[in-house]
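Good morning C.,

I know you're traveling, so I'll keep this short. The sequence:
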Amino acid sequence: MTDQRIEKDLLGELNVPREAYWGIHSQRAINNFRISGREVNPSLIRALAQVKMACCLANAETGHLSQKKSRVIQQACLEISKGLLADQFPMDAMQGGAGTSTNMNLNEVIANRAIELLDGQKGDYALVHPLEDVNLHQSTNDVYPTALKVAAIFLLRDLSKAVADLQGAFQEKEKEFAAIVKLGRTELQEAVPITLGAEFSAFAEAFSRDRWRTFKCEERLRVVNLGGTAVGTGLAAPRSYIFLAIEKLRDVTGLGLSRGENIPGETANADTFVEVSAILKAHAVNLIKIANDLRLMNFLGEIRLPQLQAGSSIMPGKVNPVLAEAAIQVGIKVIANDAIVTDAAARGTLQINEFLPLLAHAFLESLDMLINIDRLLTSHVRGIGANKEKCEEYFNASPMIITALLPVIGYEKATLFITEFSSGSEKNMRRFLEEKLGKELIDQIFSPYQLTALGYKDKKNG
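The tokens, ready to paste straight into the viewer:
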């Protein structure tokens, strides 16, 4: 067929679309793995292109690759790392072979783009060969996990910034709501007084911890196994290249990467991803908890979440807290992905982990989703309004606010007051207490400052 070209490998011949930059190895994988309909994460493709460029530079500098080939391979890698040719990586994310199919896809696309730059025809591998030139001195088992770490570091930096912005949005509300007194709640029951600002400060503090965790995670991913080839021993790669490849990768990525002291160990084990995934899970847990709290506070009328869209196809005027619900769903998915990362890492056997494609897909998906939902939530939080009147209504009506008076009247007298209030006609607890103890004292005890101060001053000890 005129729109096809024929390529050969050890299994025989196969038709490949004439204009495709991929080749026979990619085509076999495309045919074999029609599974999820979800392609390999673009961040991993871009990172793999950066790794390939570093290897190309190392091979050229050590004299194993001609300058002519090096120049066009570098250009192809640069284009892919910038997101070009993105439609040439149709590989299903659910693939066997420890990532070999993805690696071969990169090799072939880079080679055919390099051939094109030399004014050749796609598939003319005498000009630039996918394996002998692009993949020179490499194995899937060292370039794939290295690329995964590179992709993850860049995404972690984006996530750390997104979490910092989200923390900042809650801190803005903490200040804005600092003087709004409200009722605290524990176990979905009325509890002691607090301020709305203090409530938002707790949210900000949780994200502060997430910000620090994600920032520090980068250190866990900086050690790579590039140069280790198949099992971490560097077999079939010259020593000069092995020592230079990591330096070139640092130059290409701008990241503080280092070669593992025990490369076979780095190649065989994927526990680092489990460690970082656990940090992502911790952030997911905070997202679920806080998003649900926002839903409850919105339901109670204490805050007003921004209205984003109609909430029902049958109930006119209904508006739902859809972004909070989306955040909860992202959190659930990240927790599920953490289980996938854990299981996939545990199932590696002997010198490699065969299940890195699944691990990579789940791991990078979690990073992508968390970045996106954090950015959306940041804008959403900045639009939250407070219903001061509703907060005061709940506060004034609750017998629980008497807890703030324990240092003044004691537990027994407080209990008597509650009994008297409950059996009387007065429905406003604050007004009841003002009648009993005086408005000046009640205003002082229930001031925002007094309610959020750390304890009270002991007269005996100052």
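Safe travels,
E.
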